User: Fold these one by one.
Assistant:
Number 1:
Amino acid sequence: MNISKADQCRIRDYNLEQANIQRKREEDYRKVVEKRNFDQVVAERVARNIRLDADKGKNLDLEC
């Protein structure tokens, strides 16, 4: 079966477009994952800071 040059170009263009769409989809997903990880790190730091602030004054050095 012979495929004309025009059809070959259309197939090539379609494949390139699909590859670009897949690359964009993967990049968008990576950004979502990075944002979620960053938000989790921030939340952990905030929780740690709140816990440390709550401990202030409870651990007194009585020997001073």
Number 2:
Amino acid sequence: MTRAISTAVFARSLVKRAPVNRTPVEPRPLYVRAGAARIDEIPLTAADGTRLALTRIRADERPRPAVLLLHGHTTSADMFVLPETRNLVDVLLDHGYEAWMLDWRGSCRLPYNESAARYTFDDVALYDIPAAVTHIKNAIGQQPLSVVAHCMGALTLSLSMTAGLVPGLAGVVAQGVFLTPKLIDRARLRMTLGGELLRRRIDHLPVDFRKVGLRSRYALLFALAAKGAECPDPTCQFLHNNAWGVGASLYVHANLHPRTHDRLAELFGAAPLWILPHLRRIEFARSVVRWNTNDHRYRALPDNALDHADRIDCPVLLVSGSDNQLWGESNKLCHQILATRQPQLGVRYLEIPNYGHLDTFLGRGAAVDVFGPILDFLDETCLLDRYHHPAQLDPPNGGGGHFSRGQGPR
């Protein structure tokens, strides 16, 4: 059942711990800005019984090209609808698209990262993303569907695509990482050594110091993150100065709006450590590889996604900030490899100067610096898909604070 929401939802609620992944869950509300857009929250259940969350945002009832937005691990669909900035959904609606946002099982709007319902990235690729794509295609009919994916959302999408589970997309934008994950050196070393030690003692790493306090077993990790940090906020230190204890940084600090900075503990959830073995296997292989190699339920997934890149059947734009202090030059490497091995794909690479990782979406200037090239790519690929150009549609009215492409608050 779909329910329309006509006003913004600002209430936050705690999600109850789910003992197994088939337990019905209610995702916590989104933070969205009030306006003329229609927002539909759609319950979605993956084929393995896991309850997910799908959100559709559109200006009106007219048929429009659709864009599915996939968040990164431990974030959520909130990252695409920041009310304090001109966000990606604002831009898509103004330019004739409708937006769909999937909260897959790694979302902080869902309880699975802190529950006994353990999963791997295989589950996201096999169950979550195909379920969302199928639902959206049934809803939009012959309209083209594109995907904009961030971090682990993009990585798991690559596994779905090379398995042939999501054919017929108009185009894909993958930010940060895609088929060739390569962590920066210090993050790789700390994940290998420190991650294994931590995993034997704790299940997950929280990011909100207010919920754990000085007497918790996590206090030392927050203390280490604070070392040498310029920002006094403990959550920011944990994410920017020493992300999840592996020495990475998730954004360029100066690129965040002050309100976004204050909301970091809401925008990020706990990181499960039991998923580290799969992440290590992926990173060591320099490719997206399947974890469940001996489980027949996952036989549809390739053992190594890069070896099956020829199954990708749509244009791909690889995006990365020039100062990505998590995945480094992973997408640049991916572009070089695919240009050599699969030149027929015509994969492109775009580097955004003075941006890091998450600030390509969360940054207060992203509407100016990042979203324009993404829109150009989406427009072009929709034309190649032989459908009408979104620019032929009248932009929606009454959404509040609309800007033309290349404009927006900094």
Number 3:
Amino acid sequence: MPESHPPQAMTTTPDRPPLALRDCLSSRARALRSQLAATGSQDLADLIRRLRAKRGLSQRRLAELAGVHRSTVYRIETAAIRVRPATLAGIANALDPDRRGEILVQLTEAAGDRLAADSDQWTGYRHRMQQRMLEDGRASLPVAIVYQLRLFAASEAMRGLASTLIDRAIRLPEVPSTAARLGDLADLVDLLHEESRQLVADGGTPIYGASVPSRRRGDPPDADPVPPSAANLHAAREWVRGWQVRQGRVNPRTGRERAIAASGASERASVAAAPAVRTVSAEQIGRTELTSRRTGHRFLRLAAVLRGHGWRTA
């Protein structure tokens, strides 16, 4: 009969529990930490969800405007992760760029002590992302800044189209058969220059350092900052007229023009009601203004304007 051996006792050390017990305790600790994090972040999740619904934004659209992945917004709204301050600042700006500072305070208070610490690498990444979004026209900007960017882009496009038409007129032979064509070109060039000056006057000091925010499917009709081909003089006149309608200088004639006039009136009302565009001193941000040698226009650095709105710019 084979010799039997008594079962060996589980070996432990005074300060080290058995492996199975350690796994159990670790699992319970992770679950408790997750529960505490979810409890501490629930107020933040509810607030972001409520503000997003008020703006009519989907999770995908909020993520695009904030420069984060869609899954990040989902996990924040389900209280599954802790949020870094730089990410929270991007979400606050996406929710309402004109009330960015106020919303950021609300979000920070709702997060409480559940905010994760920012690192230098993460802050630098967020600044680079912000700059790319500004250059691509994807950033959510205060309405007054969007207004200035849009009007100045259209003004510059009109100047460019006028220069192209002048070059075409110079190349036309001075014969009786081209007299009417030259007259049409001259009239259109004068119209383009006049409307270009009007748009600069409407928008105030131009801002440089960003692209005009891109339009999305479903946006209401609006005047296009991109001019038509210089070969189509009728289309060029209608394009200028669209901007005149938008700015309230001529009365609309068609349904589309009435929609464009409504868009312009709505934007001007929003600009009037929005906080004033503020700039900081040159000592704080560096060179604030730039003067164009070609047109004599003065420009404001976008970084300076955004710093006046409470942005942290790189």
Number 4:
Amino acid sequence: MSQIKREWLLHGCLKLNDDAAAERVTTRIQSRLSQAYGGEKFRVRFWPKFGFKNTLWWYEKSFKTPSVAASYFLKTDDGRGPMLYAGISVEKGFEGAKLARKRAAQEREATERWLLDDSWDWHRFTSTWDRAQPLILEAAEALHRELYLGVEFGDATRVSKHYLVRDGHLYWRGGFNTIQWSEVLKFATKPHPKLWGSIFLARAFSLDDCTPFLHERELMDVFEAMRPIRDLWRGIQL
């Protein structure tokens, strides 16, 4: 049994070596996802590369380039306060080959890891957005929780917009007026050729939710509720 500990939220990072390798949240969720997908093997990706981690992603092992695939994720908020987010995300690579090659050289990785092409699930997110909307509302209803939606571009200087899914409606984060779902796609498809991008959908867990700890099955409840959306963006349910 894997436990997400209260202290992880307080410190803004995941102390994964608290547990034996077989009992870590990385391994346990990996195994549960494999079972849910009929034996499909899943990998785990971490950020940052060195030191304690604040973000984990799970995606099919068959993908050699992890950033291409829509993924399940877990993230601590290491900036604004003790919060944990669990959900799904899709990344958008750099549109220019020169910039992608430069970043790949800096990270000592293949250019394909950074260069947006037709194989990236980002394109399916944008092309199926109308179909994803009712699935997002169904996920919120199944979890009996508001969900947080964000579209972010850039590293150090972020160009981003954040939204709240609540009671069957979409709101700006920081406002009380409902907005059209098309606003998300409008912003996501606005050209940002020099910026890395992503969209995420998440349920938030507070410090109280994780006191004394949060069980892995509660993460899986989130992943299972969001699976139809993630599989749509993966192309599994087209």
